[in-house]
């Protein structure tokens, strides 16, 4: 009960000091929120794009075009070789053999190029295999698909191997870079937040040094003296985090209009969704923790000097 | 209760604030520390509150050795002390009531209880009607009485008053001393320092300090520095 009362007092004390100079607090919140808004925005975009990249990479396809001169028997016999190559990968793959006649018929019926194809006389298409792969968890596994394609290409009788997931691989690489940039940005701007809170608390300690000294002489423990500063730091972080999230959500509205126009060109309904409740709670928690960390560093350094 | 045994305080090679102080203060005594400015009175009081540590000798307060007390033990030592300073050190941005409540708040007392006890303490120094005022609205004498209320609010065993009558006119100084003596009357040990001999009345004992040494004393009419200081 006493412990709870002390925390309540510390929180009330932190609030009372903030209310005594609200403009300072608001300015500090503004600075910290701008620092937080950038990684928050990046994280929101990443969270939105990641499911798409995962979905796209779930079933990459590999097309194997065989040499024109390869006989049908030899072409069919390649199935065994393909299975051998695939058995090392973690994916389950459906192997479909497409005879050149079937491919030609399909081309004629689907493209409406019957007349054009008739002028060719002979069927220009080779026998082919289509490998539909599943079991890949995300775009990062595109490297593995590349390896398989290389092995398939080295089989005798294979003319060309085409992977339809090459662009997924690029997207995955891009996302990987984005994630690294975000991580770097997060650490850098996190340090900025800690520095701002550190300085805010330093100024508060200096302003309240008389109160701190008197409290010490009257029997206040270090914990009693430190606690209001910790709450101030955490409150500063929390308020800045909330403001940064609000800025991100606000910025999403005009951004989504532009994204919708762009996505419509690709027959997509893609929109940036605001951070989920869990993500919001996480980001607010991180903001408060950064504030608390800055306050703890500052209190440790500056109150030790006063002592 | 308070035992000084050959205590010295040295700030640098040649600067001694106290030299070989041997003094025993039993429970419930009213002791005046007299002497000119720079005699070491404030240093002696600061040592009892562990604001300063002895350079030599040993000092114990309520059985706690001040030489070896850890920083984490200081708050608990000070909660049994009522400190009154020459400059009252009231918090200017808080009401008189909030100032007096502070020693209770730091110990985690319930707000309602702290407020009740603070009002009772202010009543004892005749300042209950000023409880909602701010320190700068009060005269020097009134501020010193607020400091006394703050010192006694958590019922300390020892009151240490460092020049509480300095900067006060005679009337206010007498009021402050009367308030302090009234707490001595209920069994609180009081150590009061002053450089003004006109206020040295009603003491159980007077110890004179000069240049960091006990030079004279008075105890029930006997003037003997050795007897007085032990």
- Overall number of structural domains of chain B: 2
Give the strand content of chain A.
5-15%
- Helical segment count of chain A: 10
Assembly type = heterodimer
* CATH top level class name of the largest domain in chain B: Alpha Beta
The portion of residues assigned to helices of chain A is over 70%
Can you count the beta strands of chain A?
4
**What is the count of β-strands of chain B?**
10
Uncertain segments of chain B: 222-230
User: Mind describing the biggest β-sheet of chain B?
Assistant: 6 strands, mixed
Mean pLDDT of chain B: 87
Which helices and strands, and how do they pair?
The complex is a heterodimer of chains A (307) and B (230).
Chain A: H1 2-20, H2 22-56, E1 61-66, H3 72-86, E2 92-98, H4 100-111, H5 114-120, E3 128-134, H6 142-153, E4 158-163, H7 166-207, H8 209-217, H9 222-264, H10 277-306
Antiparallel strand pairs in A: 1-3, 1-4, 2-3
Helix pairs in contact in A: 1-9, 2-7, 2-9, 7-9, 7-10, 9-10
Chain B: E1 2-10, E2 16-25, E3 30-34, H1 41-48, E4 56-61, E5 64-65, H2 74-78, E6 81-84, H3 96-105, H4 111-124, H5 140-152, E7 158-162, H6 170-184, E8 189-194, E9 205-210, E10 213-219, H7 225-229
Parallel strand pairs in B: 3-8, 3-9, 6-7, 7-8
Antiparallel strand pairs in B: 1-2, 1-4, 4-5, 9-10
Helix pairs in contact in B: 3-4, 3-5, 4-5, 5-6
